[in-house]
């Protein structure tokens, strides 16, 4: 009911479109076509004859609704301001191309052609008026006007058809006269603007013939305009003033000033029309227009089967695209692996501009412990002092033992005993033997500890410098870290490589994005509703049409894949230039990392050094006490041994006969000694050292 009695506005157009769409959904599910089981009689009245026409075919209902949609659009267009180039031809075009023409005479091919071209011609008129108001170029205005002429010529041919003439009756003559008047009028407008273009190009002869032709055509239009409303007559008079003035001025200028030859009109290039208007499209399955499908739950089995076939077509398309993508990705991955270029680290210059966090952490820790280096140095000094004391004590013990050994050897030689083999000293006294044993043990321990102490000193000397650096200003720490010295050419090489690596990543990202878009499109692509409303014979065509929606994204993917070869070639060239820079950066980075690790190791070694230093102090303090006791013991033992040797020597002296008299030496007669048997007791002998050397046996002089 709403579709039969629509209001004369755009809401009425919307109602007709919705009803037309729902009829389309209905006829695809219920057999309501001609001679089908559920067909019902449908009656409409012809607009020209007034006769009622009835057909048992749902398509007749659709055709009548379409006709009325076109008619309503044309009425609204006539009432509207002439600023839009959209027109009512869409409904008539869809009706002509998709429905039989035998339903009624007002839906014949000629009548529909007439309607279509009348609508297009009037829409082109609107565009022409807008172009003239916008002062578009003369040649463009001429072409738009020429297209108006072409549309009206097509409409005139439809009007001259005998069937159309008999159907329309008197209306046919009036329409034909009006259309012919418009043909001449807009041809005049087209030639007026061609004359303007000739004027702009300073082709003054052409200007005259175009203006003359425009004047002739306008005169023909005026003849055909008899009986038209006053508004039309006024427009024609205004146009005559414009064209007549242009012609007279152009002819006068050429006759008296330019004297250019005026060519014949048929020798000039004809003006080709520019069709710039568009018919409002009709899509019976557009949910935005038709609203939701009332019969959506009625899906025939054939539609499910067709949907499965379409899904296979989509899967095939995806397989083909993915095969190409995977092949290119494999080549790209192998190439990048061989290059060993990581975009994140290829340019690590930023790393050298600041102190790494781990080093900052160590500097911060030392800043709250300002006596770190001082404590370590003092600990080392204490350790060195104790070490030196121990070494001095052990050396003195060793010297005492060696001296005692030497004295013992000489005593043995003096007493005439067989000298001990070279290198094997005479057996010491029990006291000295114990001292010697303990001394050897302490010396062995000292030797081992001395090596450890030396290594500890080396480690401390190594780490103290680093600890002083870490305790100092941050600028010094940063200055101590290596940094690359790159030339401007090196920097340019780096920038170029980074740019191309960025292109590689951009290509990857775009490829992944396009692939994801394609998958999502395929996932969401459900044309079951369209399949329901499509004839089986049209399925293949529908598949092809639906699959075209993927053409654009396939083109983008093809372009992406094709670009890979050029990108990799550019990357290869850039990498060749980067080789020398890469080597230099790698060396600097290695030094930088080594320096950072060394400084961190020095910080972490501090506690260990302090601990080992303390252990060393404790060890040597203990060893110093033992060495001091052993030194006292050695001195006492050496004194006892010396006293023992004195006793042995005195006994031996008593056993020896008196020496032969020798010539007196005046200088040595101050204290003559006579060693006569029984003259002195052994206890009365002076110390051995007080004997005159000349009075000692030769073998005792050195002792």
UniProtKB/TrEMBL annotation:
InterPro entries for the chain: ALIX_V_dom, BRO1_dom, BRO1_sf
Keywords: Coiled coil, Cytoplasm, Endosome
Composition skew (Low complexity), residue ranges: 677-688
Keyword NAD: no
Coiled coil: 387-417, 497-524
All copies of domain BRO1, residue ranges: 1-332
Gene3D superfamilies: alix/aip1 in complex with the ypdl late domain (1.20.120.560), alix/aip1 like domains (1.20.140.50)
SMART domains attached to this UniProt entry: BRO1
UniProt record, GO biological process: early endosome to late endosome transport; endocytic recycling; protein transport to vacuole involved in ubiquitin-dependent protein catabolic process via the multivesicular body sorting pathway
Region entry Disordered, spans: 648-688
GO cellular component, one term: endosome
Pfam families: ALIX_LYPXL_bnd, BRO1
Subcellular location per the Swiss-Prot or TrEMBL entry: Cytoplasm; Endosome
UniProt-listed PANTHER family: PCD6 INTERACTING PROTEIN-RELATED, TYROSINE-PROTEIN PHOSPHATASE NON-RECEPTOR TYPE 23
Protein name: PTN23 phosphatase
Species of origin: Mesembrinibis cayennensis
């Amino acid at each position: 009911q709403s579709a039969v009695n629509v209001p004369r506005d755009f809401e009425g157009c919307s109602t007709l479109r919705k009803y037309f769409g729902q009829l389309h959904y209905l006829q695809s599910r219920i057999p309501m076509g001609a001679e089908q089981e559920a067909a019902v009689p449908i009656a409409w009245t012809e607009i020209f004859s007034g006769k009622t026409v009835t057909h048992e075919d749902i398509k007749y209902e659709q055709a009548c609704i379409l006709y009325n949609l076109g008619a309503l659009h044309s009425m609204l267009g006539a009432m509207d301001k002439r600023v839009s180039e959209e027109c009512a031809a869409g409904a008539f075009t869809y009706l002509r191309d998709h429905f039989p023409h035998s339903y009624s005479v007002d839906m014949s091919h000629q009548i529909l052609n007439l309607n279509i071209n009348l609508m297009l011609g009037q829409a082109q008129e609107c565009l022409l008026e807008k172009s003239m108001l916008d002062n578009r170029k003369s040649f463009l205005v001429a072409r738009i006007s020429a297209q108006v002429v072409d549309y009206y010529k097509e409409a005139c041919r439809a009007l001259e058809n005998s069937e159309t003439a008999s159907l329309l009756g008197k209306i046919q003559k009036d329409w034909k006269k009006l259309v012919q008047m418009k043909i001449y009028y807009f041809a005049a407008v087209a030639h007026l603007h061609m004359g303007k273009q000739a004027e702009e190009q300073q082709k003054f002869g052409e200007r005259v013939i175009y203006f003359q032709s425009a004047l002739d055509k306008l005169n023909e239009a005026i003849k055909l305009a008899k009986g038209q409303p006053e508004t039309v007559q006024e427009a024609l008079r205004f146009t005559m003033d414009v064209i007549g003035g242009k012609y007279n001025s152009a002819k006068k200028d050429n006759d008296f000033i330019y004297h250019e030859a005026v060519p014949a009109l048929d020798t000039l290039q004809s003006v080709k029309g520019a069709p710039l208007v568009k018919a409002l499209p009709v899509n019976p399955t557009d949910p935005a227009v038709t609203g939701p499908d009332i019969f959506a739950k009625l899906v025939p089995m054939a539609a499910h089967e067709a949907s499965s076939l379409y899904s296979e077509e989509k899967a095939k398309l995806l397989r083909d695209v993915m095969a190409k993508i995977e092949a290119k990705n494999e080549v790209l991955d192998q190439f990048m692996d061989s290059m060993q270029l990581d975009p994140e680290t290829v340019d690590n210059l930023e790393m050298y501009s600041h102190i790494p966090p781990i080093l900052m952490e160590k500097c911060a820790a030392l800043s709250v412990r300002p006596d770190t280096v001082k404590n370590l140095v003092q600990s080392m000094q204490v350790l060195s002092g104790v070490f030196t004391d121990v070494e001095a004590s052990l050396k003195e013990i060793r010297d005492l033992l060696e001296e005692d050994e030497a004295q013992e050897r000489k005593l043995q030689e003096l007493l005439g005993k067989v000298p001990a083999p070279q290198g094997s000293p005479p057996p010491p006294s029990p006291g000295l033997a114990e001292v010697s044993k303990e001394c050897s043990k302490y010396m062995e321990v000292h030797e081992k500890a001395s090596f450890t102490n030396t290594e500890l000193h080396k480690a401390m000397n190594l780490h103290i410098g680093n600890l002083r650096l870490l305790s100092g200003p941050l600028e010094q720490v940063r200055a101590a870290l290596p940094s690359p010295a790159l030339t401007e050419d090196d920097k340019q090489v780096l920038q170029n490589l980074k740019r191309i690596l960025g292109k590689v990543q951009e290509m990857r990202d775009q490829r992944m994005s396009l692939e994801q878009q394609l998958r999502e499109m395929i996932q969401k692509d459900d044309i079951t509703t369209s399949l329901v409303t499509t004839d089986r014979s049209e399925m293949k065509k529908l598949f092809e049409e639906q699959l075209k929606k993927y053409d654009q994204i396939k083109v983008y993917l093809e372009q992406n894949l094709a670009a890979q070869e050029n990108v990799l070639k550019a990357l290869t060239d850039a990498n060749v230039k980067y080789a020398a820079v890469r080597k230099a950066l790698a060396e600097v980075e290695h030094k930088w990392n080594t320096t950072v690790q060394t400084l961190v190791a020095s910080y972490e070694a501090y506690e260990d050094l302090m601990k080992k230093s303390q252990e060393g102090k404790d060890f040597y303090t203990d060893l110093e006490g033992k060495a001091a006791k052993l030194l006292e013991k050695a001195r006492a033992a050496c004194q006892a041994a010396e006293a023992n040797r004195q006793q042995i020597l005195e006994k031996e002296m008593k056993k020896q006969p008196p020496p032969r008299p020798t010539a007196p030496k005046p200088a040595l007669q101050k204290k003559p000694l006579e060693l006569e048997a029984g003259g002195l007791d052994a206890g009365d002998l002076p110390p051995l050292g007080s004997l005159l050397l000349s009075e000692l046996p030769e073998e005792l002089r050195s002792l």
